[in-house]
Specification:
This protein is mainly alpha-helical and 380 residues long. It contains 15 helices and no strands. The longest helix is centred in the first third of the chain and has 34 residues.
């Protein structure tokens, strides 16, 4: 096999987008810890003004609408070329090593002390040894927590390999990217499927062990497939500035709509359950809003980074190399940062703005150090 078959030149803007997505993951979990809606190992008690709560909720809603779907798309983008070069067997062995080993490490080594710390903060009175005995003797306690993404990537890679084996590989041929009408119809279709899934699997409901929230998986599956198609048809390189301009305006429109939707679903009264799932108009509206925001953010960021950030200096290169290790290890790092600063009493929104840059920097520093270790170098 020709080793250069299916190989494309290094696209530094995609590496830079991965850095950005990793930063957003850290910001997202830190925001939950500082009073935003959602679940994380650490949540801090403190006062928060209404405006802080609205802004943090908006940040989390925009993030959730696109950042993990975008991660799936970026992750699948180079898979076709990698399989073309390595073959299916070597590709899957590589996926098992790079995804499976961190999964097991996280579940068996990282999650127990983080869960213990969270339990102690909530008032549980037990020693670490007692907690470990409780954790490891009941399989129902096992979870991969934030590494659900790796478990999903592993499953998606397996399904993609089976598809190639039994159906065939998509032919390599440059084609114009879909137009804005087609993209809008795609967003609407994914939104409707998302609404249907959430009738039975509302946001927050998780599959045990792998912690998959199926409420978000229509988008994840769709964008994983789009990443493969985009590679074969060179869509990332041919999306136009004119298209991006339209979707940038759409971001503004969707942000302006969000407070109206936020109030309409009952968030100010403390009840957003109808928007999270079930046969409710609020769930339909939120599901469709999410997918349009997703398309708007993905297209805008792709074109902007391709035009402005297709290069790397020393810092960006170091962060790019450490991005995966940072993703895997960010949770314990930011929990330690939050614990170290618990004594500072400020409005939680203000504290978040002041502290999150340190959390991001600490997470990348730890990721960079671990990445250099011999045992982690070929995995992370």
């Amino acid at each position: 096999m020709n080793s250069s078959a299916g190989k494309k030149p290094r696209l530094l803007y995609i590496d830079n987008l991965r850095i950005l997505m990793t930063v957003l993951v850290i910001m997202h979990h830190f925001a939950i810890g500082y009073g935003g809606p959602g679940g994380f190992f650490y949540t801090e008690d403190g006062s928060m003004s209404d405006i802080s709560f609205i802004l943090i909720t908006l940040l989390l809603a925009i993030n959730q609408s696109f950042f993990m779907g975008f991660f799936f798309m970026l992750s699948s983008y180079f898979s076709p070329g990698s399989i073309d070069r390595k073959g299916a067997g070597m590709f899957f062995r590589d996926r098992l090593k790079r995804l499976g080993i961190p999964l097991l490490f996280y579940m068996l080594v990282v999650v127990p002390p983080l869960s213990f710390a969270g339990a102690r903060l909530r008032g549980f009175d037990m020693s670490f040894g007692e907690f470990l005995s409780f954790y490891f003797t009941d399989f129902r306690n096992y979870e991969v927590a934030q590494m659900w993404f790796l478990a999903a990537l592993l499953a998606f890679a397996l399904f993609y390999l089976l598809w190639r084996r039994f159906v065939g590989s998509m032919a390599q041929s440059e084609q114009d990217p879909p137009g804005n009408v087609a993209i809008a119809l795609f967003a609407l279709a994914v939104g409707l499927v998302t609404f249907a899934v959430r009738i039975w699997w509302p946001v927050g409901a998780e599959v045990p062990l792998v912690n998959w929230q199926l409420a978000h998986f229509p988008q994840y599956i769709a964008l994983y497939i789009i990443g493969i198609a985009a590679y074969r048809r060179n869509w990332f390189e041919t999306l136009s500035e004119k298209q991006a301009k339209f979707w940038r305006w759409m971001i503004l429109v969707l942000i302006l709509i969000f407070p109206i939707l936020f109030v309409a679903v009952g968030a100010l009264e403390g009840n957003i359950d109808p928007a999270m799932g079930g046969l409710h108009w609020e769930s339909l509206a939120y599901s469709v809003w999410e997918q349009f925001m997703c398309m708007a953010m993905v297209i805008s960021l792709l074109v902007w980074f391709r035009r402005r950030f297709n290069q790397q200096g020393r810092l960006a290169g170091s962060m790019s190399g450490a991005a995966y290790a940072t993703y895997v290890l960010h949770a314990p790092t930011i929990v330690l940062v939050a614990l170290a600063l618990r004594g500072i009493r400020l409005d939680m929104g203000l504290k978040y703005v002041l502290v999150v840059p340190f959390a991001v920097g600490a997470a990348f520093l730890v990721g960079s150090i671990v990445k250099r270790l011999p045992v982690a170098r070929d995995i992370l």
